[in-house]
Amino acid sequence: MSSAQGDSEDGKEPASAEERHRELVEWVPAIIYEAGFGPSAEWYYVSPYAETMLGFTAEEMTTVHDLFYDRLHPDDREDVMELERTEVALAHREDVTLVSEYRMLHRDGHVVWVRDEARIVHPEGGEPRWRGVLIDITEARAAQQALAESYERYRGLVNSLPVCAYRADPASESRRHFLSPQLRDLLGWTPEEWATDPARWAKALHPDDRERVLDAEERQATLAVGSPWVSEYRLRSKAGDVVWVRDRAVVAEVADGRHVLDGILTDITAMHGTGEALDPLRDVLRLTCSECGAVRAAEHAGPCAECGSGAVVAESLNGALRELQAVRRQVETLLDGVHRHLETVSNKEGLPGRALPASAVERRWGRRPV
Question: Does domain 144-280+316-338 have CATH number 3.30.450.20?
Answer without folding.
Answer: yes
